[in-house]
Amino acid sequence: MNMSFMGKKVYKTWMHTPEALSKHYIPYNAKFLGSTEVEQPKGTEVVRDAVRKLKFARHIKKSEGQKTPKVELQISIYGVKILDPKTKEVQHNCQLHRISFCADDKTDKRIFTFICKDSESNKHLCYVFDSEKCAEEITLTIGQAFDLAYRKFLESGGKDVETRKQIAGLQKRIQELETENTELKNKVQDLENQLRITQVHASPAGSVIPKSPSTDIFDMVPFSPISPQSSTPTRNGTQPPPVPSRSAEIKRDLFGAEPFDPFSCGAGDFPPDIQSKLDEMQEGFKMGLTLEGTVFCLDPLDSRC
C-alpha cells in the first residue's frame, strides 16, 4: 500500500460511508507506545526510526513491570482523537490537516504510526500504536477521513482563501484609516480649544466675544456633532460633507458604511481567527497525506512491545 493525497496516487475504494466519518466517528482500541519528535513531516525512514526508538523504550518499561497503556481512537473528518478508554478523557487531538504521513507494518499487521504537527510547538511528532492486527484498516480510515475533510474544506470556502485574504487586508486598512482620522479630529479639537483660551486671555476687560461661529486654524467653522451644521460656506467655497451618525449598536467606517465582514458570507461558519485558520488548513491540505505500508520489525527485539 503506497498512496498519496494531493499527489499522483489516490486510494478511491474506502471502507466506511462518508456519513459515518462526517456525522459520527469510527472508534478503534489500541495500545499507545507513545510519541516522539521527528525532524521531517514525511518519510518511511523517519517513522521507522521513531518506531524502533519507541519500541525499545517500551521494552525497557515492560521489563520494569509497566504495562503498555490502552487508548481509544476516534477517527472523523475533524481529526484523530486519542482518549482514555475508561474516562473518555482526550489525551491528544490531532487535526487531519496537520497529519502528513501515516504508515502501517505490512508484516506485523499490528503496528501503525502517523506524523502530526503539534498545534502549540509546531514540531512534528510521530505517534506509534499497537492495534491488534487492525493497522492497515486504521491507516485507511485516517486516509478516508483526510480525503473527506479536504473536500469539505473546499466546499466551505477553501478555494477563496486568497480572495478572503485580500478582502481582510482591505478591511484592516480601512480600520487603520478610521483610527487615524479620529486621531486627527482630536488633535484639531485640542488646537481649537487652545486657540479659544488664548483669545479669551487676549481680549480687553469687559469686552464681549462675538457669538458668531469661530473658525479653526484652517479658517473653517468647527463641526459639532451635537448641534446642526452651519450653512455658512467656508473660505474655499465648499460645504463640509455631512458626517454619518455613529449609533451605539452599529459602528461605521470613515466612508459611512458598516464594516464588512468578509467571512460572514459563504457556506461555512468560521471562528474569529478565520484567516490564520484558513491559511493553516490550506497549507496542511496542500502538503497532503501520504499512506504507506512498510516494515518496522527489523529484529527480534522490535517485534516485542
Order of helices and strands: EHEHEEEEEEHHHE
Structural class category: alpha+beta
Strand order within the widest beta sheet? 1-9-6-7-8-2-3-4-5
Q: Which word captures the global form?
A: elongated
Counted beta strands: 9
What share of the residues does DSSP label as strand, in percent? 15-25%
User: How many angstroms separate the termini?
Assistant: 24 Å
Biggest pleated-sheet summary: 9 strands, mixed
For the residues shown, what is the average pLDDT?
Answer: 76
Low-confidence stretches: 227-231, 236-240, 243-250, 260-272, 298-305
Number of helices: 5
The radius of gyration over CA amounts to 32 Å
Helicity range: 25-40%
Structure description:
This is GULP PTB domain containing engulfment adaptor 1. The structure is a single chain. This protein is of the alpha+beta class and 305 residues long. 33% of the residues lie in helices and 19% in strands. It is built from five helices and nine strands. A nine-stranded mixed beta sheet has the order 1-9-6-7-8-2-3-4-5, with helices on both faces. A hairpin with a 6-residue loop joins strand 4 (79-83) and strand 5. The radius of gyration is 32 Å and the shape is elongated. 23% of the residues are buried.
At a glance:
This protein is of the alpha+beta class and 305 residues long. The chain has helices spanning 18-22, 44-63, 135-155, 161-202, 274-287, and strands spanning 2-4, 26-38, 70-76, 79-83, 90-94, 99-105, 111-117, 124-130, 290-294.
